[in-house]
Amino acid sequence: MSVTGVVLAGGRGTRLAPLTDRTSKQLLPVGGRALIERVIGKLVQAGVEDVLLVIDERHASQFMGLLEDGGGTDLRSLAYVWQPARGSGLPSAIRQVRHHLTGDKFLVACGDVLFEDGIKEAVDAFRVQESGARIITVRTPDTAGYSPLRIAGDRVLGIGDKDRELHTEGHIDLGYYLYHSEVFDLIDGLGPSDRGETEIWDLNRIYVSRRDMRCSIISGWWADVGESIETYRSVDGRYADAGV
After folding, report:
1. Which domains are assigned to the chain?
2. Which residues are listed as membrane-spanning (predicted)?
Protein backbone atom coordinates (compact mmCIF):
# COMPACT_ATOMS: atom_id res chain seq x y z
CA MET A 1 0.00 0.00 0.00
CA SER A 2 1.64 3.23 -1.17
CA VAL A 3 1.99 6.18 1.22
CA THR A 4 2.69 9.56 -0.39
CA GLY A 5 4.83 12.07 1.47
CA VAL A 6 3.55 15.63 1.84
CA VAL A 7 6.23 18.00 3.12
CA LEU A 8 5.10 21.43 4.31
CA ALA A 9 7.84 23.91 3.45
CA GLY A 10 6.10 27.27 3.40
CA GLY A 11 6.13 29.75 6.24
CA ARG A 12 8.23 32.82 6.80
CA GLY A 13 10.73 31.41 9.31
CA THR A 14 10.77 34.67 11.25
CA ARG A 15 12.23 33.03 14.36
CA LEU A 16 15.41 32.32 12.39
CA ALA A 17 15.86 35.87 11.12
CA PRO A 18 18.20 37.23 9.84
CA LEU A 19 19.23 33.81 8.47
CA THR A 20 15.91 33.60 6.65
CA ASP A 21 15.79 37.15 5.30
CA ARG A 22 16.61 35.90 1.79
CA THR A 23 15.86 32.19 1.89
CA SER A 24 13.54 29.61 3.40
CA LYS A 25 14.43 27.97 6.71
CA GLN A 26 14.10 24.59 4.96
CA LEU A 27 16.95 25.59 2.66
CA LEU A 28 19.37 26.42 5.47
CA PRO A 29 22.32 24.02 5.76
CA VAL A 30 22.24 21.43 8.54
CA GLY A 31 25.54 19.62 8.81
CA GLY A 32 26.40 20.49 5.21
CA ARG A 33 23.05 19.51 3.65
CA ALA A 34 19.88 21.56 3.31
CA LEU A 35 17.30 20.93 6.01
CA ILE A 36 14.74 19.93 3.37
CA GLU A 37 17.10 17.24 2.06
CA ARG A 38 17.38 15.74 5.53
CA VAL A 39 13.60 15.75 6.00
CA ILE A 40 13.06 14.04 2.65
CA GLY A 41 15.81 11.58 3.58
CA LYS A 42 13.79 10.54 6.63
CA LEU A 43 10.80 9.81 4.41
CA VAL A 44 12.91 7.79 1.98
CA GLN A 45 14.25 5.70 4.86
CA ALA A 46 10.63 4.97 5.83
CA GLY A 47 9.84 3.62 2.37
CA VAL A 48 8.14 6.73 0.97
CA GLU A 49 8.83 6.96 -2.77
CA ASP A 50 6.73 9.93 -3.89
CA VAL A 51 6.70 13.39 -2.32
CA LEU A 52 4.58 16.49 -2.80
CA LEU A 53 6.49 19.54 -1.58
CA VAL A 54 4.18 22.38 -0.52
CA ILE A 55 5.89 25.76 -1.02
CA ASP A 56 5.02 29.33 -1.93
CA GLU A 57 6.45 31.63 -4.56
CA ARG A 58 8.90 33.47 -2.32
CA HIS A 59 11.69 30.91 -2.59
CA ALA A 60 10.30 28.50 -5.18
CA SER A 61 13.22 28.92 -7.57
CA GLN A 62 15.68 28.07 -4.78
CA PHE A 63 13.83 24.86 -3.91
CA MET A 64 13.68 23.83 -7.57
CA GLY A 65 17.33 24.73 -8.15
CA LEU A 66 18.36 22.50 -5.25
CA LEU A 67 16.02 19.52 -5.62
CA GLU A 68 15.08 19.68 -9.32
CA ASP A 69 12.91 16.61 -10.04
CA GLY A 70 14.10 14.74 -6.96
CA GLY A 71 16.59 12.61 -8.84
CA GLY A 72 19.27 13.23 -6.23
CA THR A 73 17.06 12.25 -3.30
CA ASP A 74 16.35 8.55 -4.07
CA LEU A 75 12.67 9.40 -4.59
CA ARG A 76 10.65 7.98 -7.45
CA SER A 77 8.92 11.33 -7.94
CA LEU A 78 8.95 14.84 -6.52
CA ALA A 79 6.30 17.42 -7.38
CA TYR A 80 5.75 20.98 -6.17
CA VAL A 81 2.43 22.26 -4.89
CA TRP A 82 1.75 25.96 -4.39
CA GLN A 83 0.21 27.50 -1.30
CA PRO A 84 -0.58 31.16 -0.62
CA ALA A 85 2.39 33.11 0.71
CA ARG A 86 0.33 34.08 3.74
CA GLY A 87 -0.69 30.74 5.18
CA SER A 88 -3.91 30.16 7.08
CA GLY A 89 -2.92 27.16 9.18
CA LEU A 90 -1.54 23.64 8.74
CA PRO A 91 -4.84 22.03 7.69
CA SER A 92 -5.26 24.68 4.99
CA ALA A 93 -1.75 23.91 3.74
CA ILE A 94 -2.55 20.18 3.72
CA ARG A 95 -5.69 20.86 1.68
CA GLN A 96 -3.53 22.19 -1.18
CA VAL A 97 -2.51 18.64 -2.15
CA ARG A 98 -6.06 17.33 -2.40
CA HIS A 99 -6.12 17.05 -6.19
CA HIS A 100 -2.51 15.95 -6.54
CA LEU A 101 -2.63 12.68 -4.61
CA THR A 102 -2.83 9.45 -6.57
CA GLY A 103 -3.49 7.18 -3.57
CA ASP A 104 -5.60 7.15 -0.42
CA LYS A 105 -2.88 7.32 2.25
CA PHE A 106 -0.36 10.06 2.88
CA LEU A 107 2.15 11.26 5.45
CA VAL A 108 2.33 14.96 6.32
CA ALA A 109 5.75 16.13 7.52
CA CYS A 110 6.45 19.58 8.90
CA GLY A 111 9.57 20.55 6.98
CA ASP A 112 11.49 21.96 9.92
CA VAL A 113 11.47 18.96 12.28
CA LEU A 114 14.38 16.55 12.57
CA PHE A 115 14.82 13.54 14.85
CA GLU A 116 17.16 10.66 15.54
CA ASP A 117 14.87 7.64 15.33
CA GLY A 118 13.37 6.26 12.15
CA ILE A 119 9.65 6.28 11.32
CA LYS A 120 9.45 3.20 9.10
CA GLU A 121 7.50 1.22 11.72
CA ALA A 122 4.94 4.03 11.96
CA VAL A 123 4.52 4.24 8.19
CA ASP A 124 4.27 0.45 7.87
CA ALA A 125 1.63 0.37 10.60
CA PHE A 126 -0.41 2.95 8.74
CA ARG A 127 -0.15 1.01 5.48
CA VAL A 128 -2.43 -1.63 7.02
CA GLN A 129 -4.55 0.76 9.11
CA GLU A 130 -7.95 0.66 7.45
CA SER A 131 -9.41 3.86 8.88
CA GLY A 132 -8.66 6.94 10.93
CA ALA A 133 -5.36 8.71 11.37
CA ARG A 134 -2.02 8.19 13.08
CA ILE A 135 0.41 10.66 14.59
CA ILE A 136 4.06 10.22 15.49
CA THR A 137 4.81 11.16 19.08
CA VAL A 138 7.73 11.63 21.43
CA ARG A 139 7.96 11.73 25.19
CA THR A 140 9.40 14.94 26.58
CA PRO A 141 10.28 16.02 30.13
CA ASP A 142 8.45 19.32 29.60
CA THR A 143 5.30 19.72 27.50
CA ALA A 144 5.03 23.48 28.17
CA GLY A 145 4.16 25.25 24.91
CA TYR A 146 3.01 22.04 23.25
CA SER A 147 -0.31 20.19 23.06
CA PRO A 148 0.08 17.28 25.51
CA LEU A 149 -1.40 13.95 24.48
CA ARG A 150 -3.25 11.44 26.61
CA ILE A 151 -2.56 7.99 25.20
CA ALA A 152 -3.27 4.36 26.06
CA GLY A 153 -1.29 1.82 24.10
CA ASP A 154 -1.32 3.06 20.52
CA ARG A 155 -4.56 4.99 20.86
CA VAL A 156 -4.77 8.76 21.47
CA LEU A 157 -7.51 9.47 24.01
CA GLY A 158 -7.10 13.23 24.31
CA ILE A 159 -5.25 16.28 23.00
CA GLY A 160 -4.69 19.04 25.54
CA ASP A 161 -4.40 22.78 24.98
CA LYS A 162 -1.04 24.49 24.68
CA ASP A 163 0.00 25.98 28.01
CA ARG A 164 3.40 27.62 28.37
CA GLU A 165 2.98 27.68 32.16
CA LEU A 166 2.21 23.97 32.59
CA HIS A 167 5.52 22.16 32.99
CA THR A 168 4.96 18.42 33.08
CA GLU A 169 6.38 15.28 31.53
CA GLY A 170 4.35 13.68 28.78
CA HIS A 171 3.84 12.92 25.09
CA ILE A 172 3.52 15.48 22.30
CA ASP A 173 3.15 15.13 18.55
CA LEU A 174 6.25 15.50 16.43
CA GLY A 175 4.66 17.32 13.52
CA TYR A 176 4.26 14.16 11.46
CA TYR A 177 0.68 13.06 10.66
CA LEU A 178 -0.70 10.14 8.65
CA TYR A 179 -4.13 10.47 7.04
CA HIS A 180 -6.50 8.85 4.59
CA SER A 181 -7.97 11.06 1.87
CA GLU A 182 -11.19 11.50 3.88
CA VAL A 183 -9.30 14.12 5.88
CA PHE A 184 -9.98 16.72 3.19
CA ASP A 185 -13.71 16.64 3.91
CA LEU A 186 -12.93 17.17 7.59
CA ILE A 187 -10.64 20.11 6.77
CA ASP A 188 -13.43 21.68 4.72
CA GLY A 189 -15.56 21.70 7.86
CA LEU A 190 -12.99 23.42 10.08
CA GLY A 191 -13.50 27.03 11.09
CA PRO A 192 -10.71 29.47 11.94
CA SER A 193 -9.40 29.72 15.48
CA ASP A 194 -9.09 32.96 17.46
CA ARG A 195 -5.89 33.71 15.58
CA GLY A 196 -7.68 33.38 12.24
CA GLU A 197 -6.19 30.05 11.15
CA THR A 198 -7.32 26.46 10.91
CA GLU A 199 -5.54 24.44 13.60
CA ILE A 200 -4.03 20.98 13.35
CA TRP A 201 -5.17 20.05 16.87
CA ASP A 202 -8.79 20.85 15.96
CA LEU A 203 -8.49 18.49 13.01
CA ASN A 204 -6.88 15.73 15.04
CA ARG A 205 -9.42 16.06 17.83
CA ILE A 206 -12.12 14.96 15.39
CA TYR A 207 -10.35 11.63 15.05
CA VAL A 208 -9.84 11.42 18.81
CA SER A 209 -13.56 12.00 19.38
CA ARG A 210 -14.24 9.07 17.04
CA ARG A 211 -11.68 6.94 18.89
CA ASP A 212 -9.93 6.62 15.56
CA MET A 213 -6.59 8.33 16.22
CA ARG A 214 -3.61 6.06 16.76
CA CYS A 215 0.00 6.94 17.54
CA SER A 216 3.51 5.62 17.07
CA ILE A 217 6.09 6.60 19.68
CA ILE A 218 9.70 7.18 18.67
CA SER A 219 12.72 7.71 20.90
CA GLY A 220 16.02 9.56 20.67
CA TRP A 221 16.62 13.26 20.24
CA TRP A 222 14.35 15.52 18.21
CA ALA A 223 14.24 19.21 17.38
CA ASP A 224 11.99 21.85 15.89
CA VAL A 225 14.81 23.40 13.90
CA GLY A 226 12.81 26.56 13.23
CA GLU A 227 12.22 27.22 16.93
CA SER A 228 15.20 29.55 17.40
CA ILE A 229 18.66 30.31 16.06
CA GLU A 230 20.11 28.55 19.10
CA THR A 231 18.18 25.35 18.28
CA TYR A 232 19.18 25.56 14.62
CA ARG A 233 22.87 25.92 15.48
CA SER A 234 22.67 23.05 17.96
CA VAL A 235 21.18 20.69 15.35
CA ASP A 236 23.63 21.90 12.70
CA GLY A 237 26.50 21.11 15.06
CA ARG A 238 25.05 17.71 15.95
CA TYR A 239 25.03 16.61 12.30
CA ALA A 240 28.42 18.18 11.59
CA ASP A 241 29.98 16.36 14.54
CA ALA A 242 28.43 13.07 13.39
CA GLY A 243 29.71 13.61 9.85
CA VAL A 244 26.47 12.47 8.23
Report:
1. 3-242 (3.90.550.10)
2. none
